[in-house]
Amino acid sequence: MAAACEVAERETRQQVGIACFNSPQQFMLSGQNLAIIAAEQYLLDHDRQVEVVPLIGGVPYHSPLLKPCGQQLRKALDRCEWRRPCCPVISNVNAQPYPDTVTPVQWLEQQLSQPVQWQRSLTYLTGHLSPIAIEIGPQSVLKNLLLENRYPSTSLRI
């Protein structure tokens, strides 16, 4: 995957990178359109088993291209009053709970421009928290990722 991104960036002079580490079999790319297309083509050319599914969105979520947006978000978050959450909150950035001693502003800012560590988050949860997952929304995206990661849970969809 990293090789595909490097080749695509070199060929297109645009940015592309891994936006989500969803499971051992599933990654998401984010970046500029030409670079994403080039990375997809590299993957298709070099791995006959790869499946490429373009997502509609148009925003380079969880990529360095959103770093300026993260800086703007931080300015707004710095004006907020923060309290300790009543339960552990796992950061997308490092797959660890927010420390009690700091506000989550740093991690909330970084999650716009850093890859989502979903697989690592599930590994953390497996050893530390309840095996109940609640998915809110009309689809089963998270339930399917729990299955792909062999997460030992009961999943509820609301």
TrEMBL record:
The keyword Acyltransferase applies. Coiled coil: none annotated. Keywords: Acyltransferase, Transferase. Residues 1-158 form the Malonyl-CoA:ACP transacylase (MAT) domain. Its EC number is 2.3.1.39. GO terms for biological process: fatty acid biosynthetic process. It catalyses: holo-[ACP] + malonyl-CoA = malonyl-[ACP] + CoA. GO terms for molecular function: [acyl-carrier-protein] S-malonyltransferase activity. Gene3D superfamilies: Malonyl-Coenzyme A Acyl Carrier Protein, domain 2. This is [acyl-carrier-protein] S-malonyltransferase.
